[in-house]
Amino acid sequence: MSIKTFIKSRLRDRIKQNNVLVVYDSDKRYHDLCLELSSEEIHVIDASESSIESRETAIQSLMELGKQNSKIKGMLIYIPAKAPMEDEEKQRDPFSLYMVCGRVFPDPEIDSDEYLNLCLAAKPDQSTEIRRIFKANANPSFALIDALGAGTGWPNLQTLLGVESARNIILALLAPSPIQEKNLKEQESWLTEAKELLTGTIGLNLVTRSKSWSKVREELWRFILFSEFAYDLQSVLPDSLKDVPHAKSEAMPTIRDLCETLRNDLRTHSLYIERAEEIESELELPIRCKGIKDLGTLDTFPFKERYFLEQAMDAFKNEDTDTIRKILSHREKSVWRGKGESQAQWAVIRATLSLIEVCDDHESQLSDYQSSQEKLIEYYIGSLREVDRLHRELEQAVGDYLEFQGTMREIIELARRKYYKLTNKVQDLFIRHIEKSGWPPVGRMMNADLFDVVIAPLLQESGRRVAFFQIDALRYELGVALEKEISEVGQTELRAAFAQLPSITKVGMASLLPDAGKKLVLKRNDKGELFPMLGEFPVTDVKQRMDVLRKRYGQRFQEMHLTEFMRSRKSIPNTVELLVIRSERLDNKLEGDTESSLNYIHELFKHIRVAINKLEKIGFNDVVIATDHGFVLNAGAEAGSVATKPQGEWINLHERSLLGKGAADSANFVLPAEQVGIRGDFEYLAGPRGLVSYRTGMDYFHGGISLQEIIVPVITVRYKDKKPGHLKPTVNLSYKNGAKRITTRLPVMELLLEYYDLFEQEASFEILLEAHDKTGNVVGEAKAGGPVNPATGTITLKPGERVQIAMKMNPEFEGEFTVKALNPTTLSTYSKLDLETNYMV
């Protein structure tokens, strides 16, 4: 391979990884090869001639690159000058913006970007001659470098392996193709040449006396990986490792290039992980390197993940978010993303940082929205609800892999404290506004009016069929996520509504009935218990509520549970124009085990999405999705975060609301029932002012007054006309280059979405990844975080995009299973992969 071709390949890889690349070249060495990279997909801007014109062209290219349907995949800016290093220089440089957007070449932080090291990496077999040339001339031409070694070679190795350069021969010895491996095993004529090549290029004197390729490979892997590790180490090797063979510094450009290639090439990615783990264990590196403070920056061995993790946690303690972002950016490219455990721990770090930053941002903005109830509500609906979403996603990430909680407990608690500090400050403002202005606000839709305002008008149109989803505990931020996921189905609209107080299920679900805004009253039975009435009719349980609708709509009405609708093959009669579909599982699960149940959210969303698709096929026109109340997550709350009930005679509802009579105090509000929209036998509503309950240990609660509990979503869907269908997409699903057994409960699958429609190559595409046992039960799912949407569990890809997804297997399952890439709307299978468990005990 010529030096020019080698450098062009490196530049293409940088553009592919970062989209934007700025080449600073004061020696004007790379000008021609940069221009040769220009294509339909890569815009090359040459700043050699006109700085003004090149700046305009660069801005236009960057804007085009940011468009969703752009054909441009990357841009390169060539600047015949030295790269700015100091802040003042960067401020004067009109192209420094693009350094921030992407990458710079040569990168001052990467030794292998130096021209000498590029030449050594491209031609490792000519390292002595290359160094001699550079000693005489610091800027030798490409032609001079390419002329080196024209008459040398290793005929047996070149013939057996089908490659020419020393670099590619070494790569083939480390990770051969099936044909190359067969040839190496069947012949021994290559061994003498291999010994000479390895000694001359990287300084490895083979110790093994075996003539087998497997023994040579084993020694070669150990030498190359340990050499990179030793070179990257920012201190001397421990005494116990000094005698382990490793390369001298002269060979490091070649060593670095080989390691980077093995890590980044998807064909050798899994093999690298396997060999690095074996060598780390064999050399006992975690034990022998214990106490070393600076292990360097490279990803040679997996135990360095712990080092980077400790760096990130130290940065959290020092509130150094820039360092955390830099570490996270570096980990995104790490080979160890191929391990599910690594993905899990960095998901916690990423979720923690996101929550801390958004809490800081919103705390600084809160003063702009605190003057009135109206402003505070708009603030929550518009952006403050993102704080709840990110807090939920953190708790999901923590619950996904509990082993990391011990090591990360301090930063997790830091993020939780930030969240509780902000939300309690908001809660204090909200309760004060409620005490002053009452509930609900004037001019906004109450849940109790939803049926009459939204559903009844649709049913007045003859033949119009409406599906009404009643989903328990679908708080507002979840409604935002759900609306995004179903927007492809038709014309969707998300509105905020206000829950009926007290925000408990039997009151909230009763408020979704016809005439609830006028007739819903709360009565006290002989036992002193609360039961809601719709006029003269009790509506405490599901049967009573459904009877109200059945009496009004007769054969036009039918109801069933969401799970029943999903599984049922019975047809819905054409006479049915109002179909109520119910689900209480989210509320039930979160009340039972909050930490492990948050991931049920995306299963719920999957069922809703599939149900909506099914409803369209059987002739329904509209969908309305509503809920009874929201909820508060209280995971990790400090000991003692519990409220003491005020003095008086009260009925305790869900440990967050009291109905009866008594006096307010510093910890509790007491409001006239009519002031908060409650009609019936009760004179007052009381509750804790803070986001706490009347019982300790409640990680999840509702029933009280807070933005999270009583601002709820209403989603409407009107089906749109279908466009002609597209070709079925091709989804390539693989695991560890063809391995058939998983040895961890967090195996990492690789997904590649191939080009499936010539005219839709820029369209995004959504995939659901699940593991099913022989009977079709779900025994594993994509772990939330990163490419996996925490609310929906789906992965969004563009054609040609390849991602690695960690699967979270059911800890109780062992045996054969099938990983399926599914259409999340229809659950049809795009691709599947048969595997089995082989866990090490």
Radius of gyration based on Cα positions: 32 Å
Q: What is the overall silhouette? A: elongated
Structural class: alpha+beta
Distance between the first and last residues' Cα:
47 Å
Average predicted local confidence, pLDDT: 89
How would you sum up this structure in a few lines?
The chain is α+β, with helices and mostly antiparallel strands and 841 residues long.
Provide an overview of this structure.
- The chain has 841 residues and is an alpha+beta fold.
- The chain folds into 5 domains: 3-109; 120-288, no CATH class; 304-437, no CATH class; 447-633; 731-837, Immunoglobulin-like, CATH 2.60.40.
- The protein is 42% helix and 18% strand.
- It is built from 31 helices and 28 strands.
- The strands form 6 sheets. Strands 20, 21, 22, 23, 24, 25, 26, 27 and 28 form a 9-stranded mixed sheet that branches. Strands 6-19-12-5-11-10 form a 6-stranded mixed sheet, with helices on both faces.
- Helix 19 runs parallel beside helix 21 (405-437).
- The radius of gyration is 32 Å and the shape is elongated.
- The two termini are 47 Å apart.
- The model has no long low-confidence stretch (mean pLDDT 89).
